[in-house]
Design brief:
Blueprint lengths: L1 E6 L5 E5 L1 H5 L1 H15 L7 E4 L2 E4 L3 H12 L5 E5 L18 E3 L1
Parallel strand pairs: 1-6
Antiparallel strand pairs: 1-2, 2-5, 3-4
């Protein structure tokens, strides 16, 4: 397990995820938010009608639930939410350099 930083235009959180997901974080996150959310029957609860369009309402915790239920056998977990930290420039030194994805 490796630590990664995830956010959804909100405070950055630290999660422990399987090594494969951490090493390829952008690919895993993009698969979730650009494909799975719109195509999988399992993602129907995230789809919302926005006028004449269908959008998706989700956050970083939903991505972790997706990893845990549909992708990885090793379970990911929240380590901490960095209160008041919204961009990489504000990261405490111990988290600088970790892979980061903002949804």
């Amino acid at each position: 397990m490796k630590n990664v930083l995830l956010s959804a235009d909100s405070a950055i959180s630290v999660f422990a995820v399987p090594d494969e997901a951490a090493d390829n974080l952008e690919r895993y996150c993009s698969e979730f938010c650009c494909h799975w959310l719109y195509k999988s029957p399992d993602a129907a609860k995230y789809r919302v009608k926005m006028g004449n369009l269908i959008g998706a309402h989700y956050n970083e915790k939903d991505f972790i639930a997706y990893l845990n239920r549909h992708v990885c056998s090793e379970q990911s977990a929240l380590i901490t939410t960095l209160t008041g930290v919204y961009c990489e420039d504000e990261l405490p030194e111990e988290y600088a350099g970790l892979p980061h994805f903002n949804f």
